[in-house]
Automatic annotation (TrEMBL):
<feature type="binding site">
    <location>
        <begin position="10"/>
        <end position="18"/>
    </location>
    <ligand>
        <name>ATP</name>
    </ligand>
</feature>
<dbReference type="Pfam" id="PF02224">
    <property type="entry name" value="Cytidylate_kin"/>
</dbReference>
<comment type="similarity">
    <text>Belongs to the cytidylate kinase family. Type 1 subfamily.</text>
</comment>
<keyword id="KW-0067">ATP-binding</keyword>
<feature type="domain" description="Cytidylate kinase">
    <location>
        <begin position="6"/>
        <end position="215"/>
    </location>
</feature>
<dbReference type="GO" id="GO:0006220">
    <property type="term" value="P:pyrimidine nucleotide metabolic process"/>
</dbReference>
<keyword id="KW-0963">Cytoplasm</keyword>
<dbReference type="GO" id="GO:0005524">
    <property type="term" value="F:ATP binding"/>
</dbReference>
<dbReference type="InterPro" id="IPR027417">
    <property type="entry name" value="P-loop_NTPase"/>
</dbReference>
<dbReference type="InterPro" id="IPR011994">
    <property type="entry name" value="Cytidylate_kinase_dom"/>
</dbReference>
<dbReference type="GO" id="GO:0036431">
    <property type="term" value="F:dCMP kinase activity"/>
</dbReference>
<keyword id="KW-0547">Nucleotide-binding</keyword>
<keyword id="KW-0808">Transferase</keyword>
<dbReference type="GO" id="GO:0005829">
    <property type="term" value="C:cytosol"/>
</dbReference>
<protein>
    <recommendedName>
        <fullName>Cytidylate kinase</fullName>
        <ecNumber>2.7.4.25</ecNumber>
    </recommendedName>
</protein>
<dbReference type="InterPro" id="IPR003136">
    <property type="entry name" value="Cytidylate_kin"/>
</dbReference>
<dbReference type="GO" id="GO:0015949">
    <property type="term" value="P:nucleobase-containing small molecule interconversion"/>
</dbReference>
Amino acid sequence: MTGLVVAMDGPSGSGKSSASRGVAKALGLRYLDTGAMYRAMTWWMLEHGVDLADAGAVAARAAEPEISSGTDPDSPAIHVDGVDVAGPIRGDAVTGAVSVVAAVPEVRARLVAMQRQIIGDGGIVVEGRDIGTVVAPEAELKIYLTASAEARAARRNAELAGSTMEAQQAALARRDRLDSTRRTDPLSMADGAVELDTTALNLDEVIAEVLRLVKERT
Ligand SMILES: Nc1ncnc2c1ncn2[C@@H]1O[C@H](COP(=O)(O)OP(=O)(O)O)[C@@H](O)[C@H]1O
Ligand SMILES: Nc1ccn([C@H]2C[C@H](O)[C@@H](COP(=O)(O)OP(=O)(O)O)O2)c(=O)n1
């Protein structure tokens, strides 16, 4: 590994995407959103009518979708079988199903291998749930972002018209539960990770703190 790798993990709404893109831009690094890859896989399964309640059926088709992830922090791109799915993967259908698809070991094995290939020689900020623990345990800097359940729900709520705080908090709690009760729990903190609670910080403050940690480590 020649270039810097920053692993950014944490639950939904903790600010991983925003902070990772900001840090990548500030340092001229690439950026990889691994959550988008799990969402892309889920979009493909829904498109092809795969019964998501049947883990065997999901596993049997996990090798089929051609997923391509861009790494430009200014315009993160994601394509499946040549189709731009950046919009559809953020819709309710995918958001409601992604935890189930991400729990299938064959899905994780394929996407983790792809993620390692993209990381290559480094020079990248990678965000997800298991980057510091599984995908890139050798990363120079591992951050575990947290924020209170209320702050996370409020942030998500602000993004979605017609949503309520209660509905957001319930949806996030459900996804956290699903994301952390699978056999190999990807929502756990890596050895040597720095926990950063963003509840009381704005985005610029979070980015500044991560940049300070990068400087300290390199
Ligand atoms: N420190 C912060 N303070 C306030 N809002 C934030 C902060 N970090 C992120 N946000 C906002 O919260 C929402 C969720 O952030 P995002 O980066 O998508 O989180 P994640 O990738 O962890 O799910 C976005 O609308 C983002 O602009
Ligand atoms: N490395 C990863 C990244 C995401 N996942 C799962 C967990 C999440 O429910 C989904 C979607 O992740 P994503 O980061 O897009 O979700 P949020 O933006 O945080 O709401 O994928 C995972 O299991 N492992």
